[in-house]
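Changelog-adjacent note: as of this version, every example in the card shows the full chain rather than a window. The one below runs 354 residues end to end.
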Amino acid sequence: MVVMREAGGGRENPCHPPTPAATASPLKGLQDVPREYLVNNYFYYYLFRISSAMGQEVFYITFLPFSYWIINPYVARRLIIMWSLVMYIGQVSKDLLKWPRPYSPPVVKLEKRTNAEYGMPSTHAMAATTISFTFVITTVSQYKYSLDLGIIGAALFSTMVCLSRIYTGMHSVLDVIIGSLISAVLIALAYPTWDFIDHLILTSPLCPVFCIVVPLVLCYNYPKLDHYSPTRADTTTILGAAAGAVIGFWVNNFYVLNTSAEAIAHSIPSITGEMLLKVLAKFLIGISTLVITRQLVKRTTLKTLCSWYSVSTSDLETIQQIEIEVPYKFITYASIGFNATVLVPLLHEFLGLN
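Full-length structure tokens:
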């Protein structure tokens, strides 16, 4: 449980988490009042903070590659396509509807970065619902386990993420309900096309061109706001990562792994110490490669673009302009998506980890 008190009212208790900094909300000129808080129930506090992190970029950049390297490329392809589709629709919906997040007061906001974004619908709720239920729907035909158990797990995961957004003061109940319902509808509409889209991704000669042109058109034509919001940058990041991954799927099928588009039934293997060590090694090598890729490509791309436009790389306001932000975000994360699906599996093969 979180208890509010006015900012500046009394000394800060060093035993409690740091007080959130005051941030001005650009939404309709309203300003959030600085609020200090004391945590009376650490179980709920950390439970919902961790649950909230399950819907953020750190989770995506670890779980989605993990599903490709460790679980099953067939499953990962569907997760990545549905994730990018749902997130794009959610981000655009926020900036078209322009519904503000809950005001503080009365709520206490435990996060700061997303406060500059609008609230409806909750993209955390959309992503959690999409990833969890797509995972179950796809894997239940691949592995032998109880569908009921899978649905319960997916419902629990998505519910915890949804509740965390209310607890952290970032969304209303309506935001998360609508977000979850939108995802459910999109899954139902997209499910009959999954095999067809998968076949196109792997076999169409136009796939690489489509994956570059269409996302860039969507990013450059993103809804314009009267203030800066990270939603366009986040959307470019998502579409760039998905585009790079899909191009990687195509390259693998034609030139590297000859991936089959058909679903193949698997038995869940027995877990051994050797298997766990191999999984850990694959994961650490893969994540390290992606971190290095991000640093190198981001630095090189940003310096090149800033040099082209004769601006400083430390000028944050200029870097946030569409001419620089979109290409550097897209190139950086497309490189990450491509390396996650092509370079990292080749490293695993070279090191004898497959």
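Structural remarks: The longest helix spans residues 273-308.
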